[in-house]
Design a protein that fits this description.
Protein name: AraC family transcriptional regulator, regulatory protein of adaptative response / methylphosphotriester-DNA alkyltransferase methyltransferase
Order of helices and strands: HEEEHEHHHHHHH
Number of strands: 4
Cofactor: Zn(2+)
GO molecular function: DNA-binding transcription factor activity; methyltransferase activity; sequence-specific DNA binding; zinc ion binding
Organism: Natribacillus halophilus
Keywords: Activator, DNA-binding, Methyltransferase, Transcription, Transcription regulation, Transferase
Amino acid sequence: MRLADKYWTAIVDNDATYDDLFFYGVKTTGIFCKPSCKSKVPNKENIHIFKNAYQAQTANFRPCKRCKPDGLRLPDEEWVTQIMEWIDAHYQEPLSLAILAKATHGSPYHLQRTFKRVAGITPNEYIQRTRLERAGDYLRHTDMSIRDIGSAVGLPNSSYFITMFKARMKQTPENFREEKRGEAHEASHLLDDR
């Protein structure tokens, strides 16, 4: 068995006997772990092996919140920033606290509590805010239907999307689109009149 195969087997089996021999980084998350980490097994092609935590950090990988490789802890503020960045990149997908916790190597309870304390809002509130801000961009800059915009931002149920949008923006998506386009039209006329 080649060394790389041994590493992979140790990761898949969460083998703690390898914890002092190497760490593995996951390219898609930017996080590094001990082989014994109980987080979801990543795709083999996304793994990068490191001899020590210093190497992993030098390569811009952050320590896992779950397994705390080499005794390191990611500061809560940095972890919440990482979670926000992950949401910003995946807002159009189905998201839940459990999915966020798996993606960012934490427990759902700890993630919820830490996110709320640091950001002042819950992860779900941040997800909805992000989705509705993106929807506003689509409404301003495209001719996509309301249904297609809802789907594009991860809210495929049109009536739910419209209700959420109206609750946050105080108007329907269609009224928002008309208002923003009217403002853009007025602004372009003002520029033409100069």
